[in-house]
Write the structure tokens for this entry.
Amino acid sequence: MLSLRHTVQTVERRSYLVREGEHPAESRIVLSGFVFRQKLTGAGAREIVSVHLPGEIVDLHNSFLTVADHSIQALTRAEVALVPRAELADVAARHIQVARALLVETLIDGSILKEWLLNAARRNSSARLAHLLCELAMRLRAAGLGELGRYRIPMTQEELADCLGLTQVHVSRLLSGFEKQGLIERAGRDIGISRWQPLVNLADFDPTYLHLFDAEAYPA
Amino acid sequence: MLSLRHTVQTVERRSYLVREGEHPAESRIVLSGFVFRQKLTGAGAREIVSVHLPGEIVDLHNSFLTVADHSIQALTRAEVALVPRAELADVAARHIQVARALLVETLIDGSILKEWLLNAARRNSSARLAHLLCELAMRLRAAGLGELGRYRIPMTQEELADCLGLTQVHVSRLLSGFEKQGLIERAGRDIGISRWQPLVNLADFDPTYLHLFDAEAYPA
DNA sequence: CGTTTAATTGAAAGCAGTCAAACTATGTGG
DNA sequence: CCACATAGTTTGACTGCTTTCAATTAAACG
């Protein structure tokens, strides 16, 4: 076990951790709660480009690039560790396994981005939403946050829509559709995937891209 | 200058370098020509998730992850260097600047993926196409392959469409639209951006996400 | 020069968006 | 603990961007 010099910060839902264009002096690791990265178009449309669970490093970018190319916001109230910019680089330079772990994390991050791009570009709205529900189910379980297919969706329909490039209205219709088809059950934001395999089929979901095995092989 | 054990391979247009699901024994660096990464949906729709110019490392993934989460194909006839799986890891372990360069390249890769995701999810078709034309213009110039805004598009309309999540038919209509509006000139696949600023405005293009400066700071 | 591959054009259909209003939760202060 | 305010969700009617299907033209290639 190795120690990183850091401070802990508690942030409220929707507060910004980093704004696009800034160059913060530290990188962040999620300790509890959920955090997401977003980008805006000039016209003001928002896209959530990734969601981060406890244990994940949200912004290596800030330690190794000069400009933040996206904003980071809290999806729920969250605790994050702030690691000084130089600290991560120093530790990585001294411990090659750390450097390797950072690279692996970043490659997995890229893999998920590719799947999200495929999703947004080439799957219809219901497959897209189903895909996200499946991904959240697997990642939450992998993070030790509940059993597979039974969880509280950590975001509003508007935020779901912004993960998917859809509108909130359409997400609402899709969710009630899934419910009517008996694919899911809902109580507020608590969701239960009633029939996993049919939902996986609808979603065209194959968890390979999550590289869950690779992630375990090199814990940070 | 440091040397990597490698072999050189020449590949024809459209041949596969890596197929999704494989676990090749080497990573690839583009020496000449263009190469792209693609993913397919279960229904067979294709999305090109990135395009790679000479000098770029296409698949660190294969050295550091256990399964290829996407396919790699030649966009044009190309020369690629094959670096054995262990070689990159060894060199990175011995030279921390190499490890850092690999990480920076991967972070930039992720930044471009985020922009493509924003593009596919939140911009309309004309902004999307214009955005790609601007990106190619800047990256080609940065790679020393011609002056800004005057180049040969290295792909067919179908491939353009697959970069954008559109159909070939629609890309055709959009391109002639741009031409009619005097934004671009065309002669076959040779393109000239006649009015850079209006195209940039239409595209909502801001090159920050390419991190061209960061890339220069750490040449591989 | 013939054959294959790529690009253009037109007409029609459909998925998801937009606008608007009603309804339901959630939360806060009196 | 209720009343009110705010935030989030549902539902309906209508619009429109992009796709689909199909046929033609142009370019590239051997």
In short: Residues 124-125, 166-167, 169-170, 173, 188 of chain A lie near DNA strand C (CB under 10 Å from a C1'). DSSP finds eight helices and ten strands in chain A. The domain at 7-94 of chain A is CATH 2.60.120.10 (Jelly Rolls).
